[in-house]
Amino acid sequence: MAQSEEAYDEKWMKEAVNMAKQALGRGEVPVGCLLVYEDQIIGTGGNAANETKNATRHAEILALEEAMRWCDDKQLERGELFSQTKLFVTVEPCIMCAGALRIMGIKKVVYGCRNERFGGCGSILSVNSDELPSIGEPFECKAGLYADTAVQLLQEFYKGQNPNAPNPKIKASGMKDEGPQLQCPGDTDTKDQVETATPVK
C-alpha cells in the first residue's frame, strides 16, 4: 500500500526535527533541514552560523551544498534533480534561503513554524510565490508540520545564554555597550517573538 503524502511528510519532518535538536546541542539556533529525492536523503543541514561566525550558514544552505555534492558525485544534472526534490525544514526559510531555494529550482518545501521576523515564504515576504522571474520559478509551501516542536526548541535556545555571543564592551562611563542591536539576515525569531510565537495550523 502506497504511503500517504501526509505520512511521508511526517516521516521526513521528524528527521528535520532531529537535525534541529543536534543544532541546539551545538549551541546553534535550532533549525534542521533535509532534502529528499526519491525517498532518500541527499542533503542535510543544521544551523552553523555561531560555530562558523558566518551569518549565511543556515540549515537550508548547508543542505543545498551537500545535495549539490551528491549530484556531482553521481554525475546527475542538478536542475532536473532539484525540481523533483522536496525540502523539509523546522522553521520557515528566511528571505535569503527562500531566494536560494528558488534559484536552485526546489519545487516543494515543508516547514514547521513561521519566521515572523525574516520569513521568506509568506510571513514577511513571499519570495516563494512572488513574480520574480530573474530568480526562477515559484515553489510550493506547506506550513505547520511539527510547528509546536519547532517553537519549543527555539524557546529552549533563547532561554539560555549564547556561548558564542561576543562579550559586551565596557564604556568609559562604566556602562555596558551592548553594541548595535542588529540580527543577522535570516536569523529566526528574537527571544520575545519566539515566546509569543503561535504555530501555523
From TrEMBL:
Protein name: tRNA-specific adenosine deaminase 2
Species this protein is from: Strongylocentrotus purpuratus (Purple sea urchin)
Keyword Metal-binding in annotation: yes
A GO MF label: tRNA-specific adenosine-34 deaminase activity
Region spans: Disordered: 160-201
Keywords assigned: Hydrolase, Metal-binding, tRNA processing, Zinc
EC primary class: hydrolase
PROSITE patterns in the cross-refs: CYT_DCMP_DEAMINASES_1, CYT_DCMP_DEAMINASES_2
Pfam families: dCMP_cyt_deam_1 (PF00383)
Catalyses which reaction(s): adenosine(34) in tRNA + H2O + H(+) = inosine(34) in tRNA + NH4(+)
EC number(s) on file: 3.5.4.33
Cofactor: Zn(2+)
Protein family: Belongs to the cytidine and deoxycytidylate deaminase family. ADAT2 subfamily.
Domain CMP/dCMP-type deaminase span(s) in chain numbering: 7-132
